[in-house]
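name: query_chain
kind: protein
chains: 1
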Amino acid sequence: MQDFNLNVVWFVTVISCNVFTLTFAKDFAYNGAMGPEHWGEQYSTCSGKHQSPINIDSVNVIRRTYQPLRPKKFESTPQSGEILNNGHTVVVRLEYDEQRPTVSGGPLDGEFVFEQLHFHWGDNDTFGSEDRINNVSFPAELHMVFRNTKYPTFGEAALENNGVAVLAYFYKISKKDNPDYAEFTELLEHVVKPDMVAKFSDPPILWDFINIEFEDYYTYIGSLTTPPCSEHVTWIDFKEPVFISANQIERFRHLYTHDNSPMTHNYRPLQPLNDRNVFSSLPIRAPMATPKNPASAVPFVDNLVGGGATRRPAGISVTATMLVLSIFTVKIAI
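structure:
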């Protein structure tokens, strides 16, 4: 019995540690001995075949029709919100009185609930995004992370196929500040050191961070882009960028990591595509209604004849119309 109890304790400890590393892994960096090229030494999944980020070649994608993506509660005002410097990025955490925002439809199998959002950026405005489009990098990228509602925690969801989805947005530089990012970028000055937290005075809604356009995107199956690099993540990369100013992006680079180094960049290098396909969304078009009486529903188009507007059945040429009018005129003259 004692051996059984010890085995149970060991099993629970292992499971707890696995969940812990999935959500709170800290022993990695973007440079040096703990940089991306060494992640696989401690986290074997980081050496997997289906890793992220990738380069998306728009010529070689497969165009596929999906049901519309269905965001829900993205307009809901959180009860509270805060940002955290976790030593690797800035995380935005939002708490809600009622149901948290969810997304479903598109390439997603099931309903996914919002967990958090965070950012990746580069040393300057010429690169910084993780995924690339046609080998073009963007100055920064936003990851909005969701878990399948089938699983009660993110740690459990990250261990399962179809457990996690990430909505990814690329940033482009605008001349003016994005007002929706005003308080957020101001709060960055209060989380310069790792593990520092700052609260929003006016918690943002999810729409404040992203575009409302939800139809045009690329999607593929990849991984988390930080250790433990769990795979089977559904990525949705929106083609329409979010615009913020160079000044707003610059504030990210003033943060510090756990080793007291400037967090000038935090993007993982590109990973091989291997045997995966990347899909490009095709929205479903509403079917044309079939008229009850086709004979009485011949479409007409406007054409100018003799300086006045007349209407003729579509498909009948102007020459034929003029011929009919000429015959009619001759008969009247006779």
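note: Residues 2-24, 291-334 have pLDDT under 50 and may be disordered.
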